[in-house]
Every structure is written in structure tokens, then in C-alpha cells.
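Whiteboard transcription, Tuesday session. T.W. wrote the C-alpha cells on the left side:
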């Protein structure tokens, strides 16, 4: 069985990128993802519930994230929460997208230097 090519998902939709980046360090529940994105982007990106949960559904269908069976201690958790994590494919796709964005930034910097000379 061949592994899916991560580049077929590139470029990622902005909301997918932000959700996946939120899951890069740890498993999170939906509200945690929304808050992390809002904080990380200094309020510039807000994932409304319909956008977030629609994107989560599509990310699961694409095998980029999955629902986690692991739960925090009951006193730190709410039984209604669902936790999500990146799949192995999701991690490869996120890495490929980050590489693409870094190359884009390098290109911009070269162009900016050319303009200021």
C-alpha cells in the first residue's frame, strides 16, 4: 500500500492550516483549538464553530486528523468534549505546507532586497 502524497493537499485552506498547526504540539478539543488560533494570531483569525467543526469533519474524512480516545483526568475534563490529533499523514502534510510557506517568505525577502537596491 502506497502512502498518500502530502503535496496533493497543498496549498492548505487557511482554516485547515490553523487547525492542524494547533494540533501539532498536543491533542486538543474544539474550543481549545478556537482559543489557541485566536491567541496565536492576536485575534486576526477567528474560527467560528460552524467553520471549525465543518473543517474538522473534512480533515477527518481526508485522514489528516483523527478523534483521540485518550482523555485528561476526569476532574480536568468535560465528558462532552471530543479531542483531536494529527495523523501521520496530517503531520507530513503540515510539514510540507510549512516548507512551502517558508519558501514563499524566502522569495518575498529576495524580492524586497531587489526593490530596495
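and on the right, the sequence the group agreed on:
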Amino acid at each position: 500500500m502506497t502512502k498518500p502524497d502530502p503535496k496533493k493537499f497543498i496549498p492548505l485552506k487557511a482554516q485547515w492550516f490553523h487547525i492542524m498547526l494547533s494540533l501539532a504540539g498536543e491533542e486538543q478539543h474544539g474550543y481549545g483549538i478556537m482559543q489557541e488560533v485566536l491567541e496565536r494570531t492576536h485575534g486576526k483569525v477567528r474560527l467560528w464553530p460552524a467553520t471549525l467543526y465543518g473543517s474538522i469533519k473534512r480533515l477527518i474524512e481526508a485522514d489528516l486528523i483523527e478523534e483521540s480516545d485518550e482523555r485528561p483526568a476526569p476532574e480536568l475534563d468535560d465528558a462532552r468534549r471530543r479531542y483531536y490529533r494529527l495523523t501521520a499523514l496530517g503531520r507530513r502534510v503540515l510539514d510540507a505546507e510549512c516548507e512551502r510557506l517558508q519558501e514563499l517568505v524566502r522569495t518575498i525577502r529576495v524580492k524586497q532586497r531587489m526593490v530596495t537596491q
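Someone added at the bottom: The chain is about 55% helix and 10% strand.
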